[in-house]
Automatic annotation (TrEMBL):
Keyword Methyltransferase annotated: no
Domain spans labelled Ribonucleotide reductase large subunit: 299-321
Gene3D superfamilies for this protein: 3.20.70.20
Organismal lineage: Bacteria, Pseudomonadati, Pseudomonadota, Gammaproteobacteria, Lysobacterales
Annotated keywords: Oxidoreductase
Family to which the UniProt record says this protein belongs: Belongs to the ribonucleoside diphosphate reductase large chain family.
EC number(s) stated in the UniProt entry for this protein: 1.17.4.1
Keyword hit for Phosphoprotein: no
EC class of the enzyme, as a word: oxidoreductase
Record-given protein name: Ribonucleoside-diphosphate reductase subunit alpha
GO biological-process terms attached to the record: deoxyribonucleotide biosynthetic process
Length: 492
């Protein structure tokens, strides 16, 4: 990377481009491994800022027009129906530079993802429609951040700032193995108050960042260790029970974050732009998703208090990747499934082989944890699915991301999304990607209302050497991943 941040961690950046831009085809080639290297940006991450109209034309197999932004400068600040009207009008007036089959361009996007893991799919219209900040004309979200969990308005006068924190869900189970929602409420309340103080105590290197942060006072409270919770409760990641618990946790975090922000508004004053937000009229995130929370009476009471007293913060929730802090906390990253039961962790002190401690505990109880079992798991790259000596119920719980249906990850992300007013970093996994399967997967994510996606992992994040099984010598990582310090790790 061009910036090494004092040797502590390499800098990283992501560039977003709208799908109607005349340079979109060249843009999608920037990370290609072949071609003229002077036209490649191997250290720059790419993301697509995709309008609904494009996805609709892909589905209908229609043409898609590309425009010079100097000819249609208004496109950048429009979304939803307003963008659609302006786009159709510009097409009718012959302003397009060229037209391409929408499916051909979409397939090119998929190929970029398959080959590089980059060119992340983020959906412009849902990001704006479901934002608390975009009520007034001119307040527009133009892009997400490096890890696709931050969605905040930007302008020439204001630079968005993400004030992030994450809760370790694995520390919120009681002695009986039940999830402790009372403890979670206490943690959320404390975390929101701390993050709100960060806004006041922070150092701002540029005035536009200070101005935007103090005007909107956004925070991004997220979580990590969801996989730990499922392991301790012996829940398969794609089970109905896991999906329900995931959504219930997301709802609880959102509720207590809003409640605390409302209390802070009464104590210290509402944020200056409260009147310009959807919350001022009582509209909350789940309303944009058409979701009715289970405890309607509790939510209606909170809605009334928010309208009356306001909120201290315009945004509350964002789930970051948490690669670094999850390693420090000793839990699994954000809301993702494990990528392997056996993998290498790179630290400043050296490289270490980590084994899924929950699996080891279960195997020890069954008398199955032996040197032969270790070697068998290592030879299988951390999978236990082809080890018949392990009970089937256990094999189901300890599947890896490569062995889970991506539909279940997308469904869970959409369920949580109704209670996430920014977004969540969502990696998707496909060991042997093909354009057809990928096209269907991202189309499904868009239809489910998912705002943003992150990396497409196309092979395991690490490979364990098999030639000397008993010595457990790990090899280098073979794919771009958050465990690899050369990769993007800028968000926590």
């Amino acid at each position: 990377a061009a910036v090494n941040q004092g040797g502590k961690r390499k800098g990283a950046a992501c560039v977003y481009l709208e799908t109607w831009h005349a340079d979109i085809e060249d843009f999608l080639e920037l990370r290609d491994n072949a071609g003229d290297d002077s036209r490649r940006t191997h250290n720059l991450n790419l993301a697509n800022w995709v309008p609904d109209l494009f996805m609709q034309r892909v589905e209908a197999d229609q043409e898609w027009s590309l425009f010079d932004p100097r000819v249609v400068p208004e496109f950048t600040d429009l979304y939803g129906e307003a963008f659609e009207r302006a786009y159709l009008q510009a097409e009718a007036q012959g302003k397009a530079v060229k037209a391409v089959p929408a499916r051909k361009l979409y397939a090119r996007m998929m190929r970029t993802l398959a080959e590089t893991g980059n060119g992340w799919m983020t959906f412009k219209d849902k990001c704006n429609r479901a934002s608390n900040q975009t009520l007034r004309a001119g307040n527009v979200i133009h892009l997400s951040n490096l890890c696709t969990e931050i969605l905040e308005v930007t302008s020439a006068e204001e630079t968005a700032v993400c004030n992030l924190g994450s809760i370790n869900l694995g520390n919120h189970l009681d002695e009986h193995g039940d999830f402790d929602f009372d403890k979670l409420a206490e943690t959320v309340r404390l975390a929101v108050r701390q993050l709100d103080r960060v806004i006041d105590l922070n150092f701002y290197p540029i005035e536009t960042a200070r101005r935007g942060n103090l005007r909107w006072r956004p925070v991004g409270l997220g979580c990590m260790g969801l996989q730990d919770v499922f392991f301790r409760k012996r829940l398969p990641f794609d089970s109905d029970a896991a999906r329900a618990l995931s959504a219930k946790i997301a709802e609880a975090i959102y509720y207590h974050a809003l409640e605390t922000s409302c209390e802070l508004a009464q104590e210290r004053g509402r944020h200056p732009s409260f009147a310009d937000t959807r919350a001022a009229s009582g509209e909350l995130q789940f309303d944009a998703w058409g979701v009715v929370p289970a405890d309607g009476a509790r939510w209606e009471a909170l809605r009334g208090r928010i309208v009356q007293h306001g909120l201290r913060n315009s945004l509350m929730i964002a789930i970051a990747p948490t690669a670094t802090i999850a390693s420090i906390a000793g839990c699994y990253e954000c809301v993702e499934p494990q990528v392997s039961n056996l993998f290498k962790r790179e630290t400043l002190s050296g490289d270490f082989l980590q084994v899924n401690r929950y699996l080891v505990g279960e195997l020890k109880q069954l008398g199955l944890w032996t040197a032969e079992m270790r070697d068998a798991i290592k030879l299988a790259d951390g999978s236990i699915q082809n080890l018949p000596q392990i009970p089937e119920a256990l094999r189901t719980v300890y599947r890896t991301a490569w062995e889970l249906p991506m539909r279940s990850l997308i469904d869970m992300a959409a369920d949580r999304g109704a209670f996430i007013d920014q977004s969540a970093s969502l990696n998707l996994f496909m060991e042997s990607p093909n354009i057809g399967a990928m096209s269907s997967m991202y189309m499904y994510a868009w239809k489910k209302g998912v705002k943003t996606t992150y990396y497409l992992r196309s092979r395991p994040a690490t490979k364990i050497a098999k030639t000397t099984v008993s010595s457990y010598t790990p090899t280098e990582a073979v794919a771009c991943s958050l465990e690899n310090p050369e990769a993007c790790e800028a968000c926590q």
